[in-house]
Amino acid sequence: MKTEIRMSFVLMREDIPPLFDELQRFPKGPRRINRLRILAYAGLAAMQPANTADGEPRRPSIDAGTTIATSSPLDAASLEFFGPPLK
């Protein structure tokens, strides 16, 4: 397994305006790459299920109909952005 990944990509403002604006604040180079790395890690960590008091992972559950019960603000934000899960 490789221990290094190299990536080169073009990000246009119309792709993801908030991400573009955040990264544009930094001059190109290590500071901008480090900010992207931090944002990616924070996003990945936010997607990992948090454990409840009994050690079970918390996940949104589907109630009757299309109502979604969320257990954290990140769950609610995710559902707002992506919509309810497919059945």
Short overview:
Helices cover 41% and strands 5% of the residues. It has 87 residues and is mostly helical.
Description:
- By secondary structure, the protein is mostly helical.
- It has two domains: 48 residues; 37 residues, no CATH class.
- The chain has three helices and two strands.
- Strands 1-2 form a two-stranded antiparallel sheet.
- The chain is extended and about 45 Å long.
- It starts with 16 loop residues before the first helix and ends in a 5-residue tail after the last helix.
- About 6% of the residues have low confidence.
Keywords:
two-stranded antiparallel sheet, 41% helix, 2 domains, mainly alpha
Number of helices: 3
Mean pLDDT: 75
How many β-strand stretches? 2
Percent of residues in beta strands?
under 5%
Give me the oligomer status: single chain
Low-confidence stretches: 62-66
Q: Supply the helix-strand structural class.
A: mainly alpha
Count of folded domains: 2
H-E string: HHEEH
Largest sheet: 2 strands, antiparallel
Shape label = extended
Rg (CA only): 17 Å
* Percent helix range: 40-55%
Largest sheet: spatial strand order: 1-2
- Distance separating the two termini: 35 Å
Give the topology, please.
Blueprint: H1 17-24, H2 30-47, E1 61-62, E2 68-69, H3 73-82
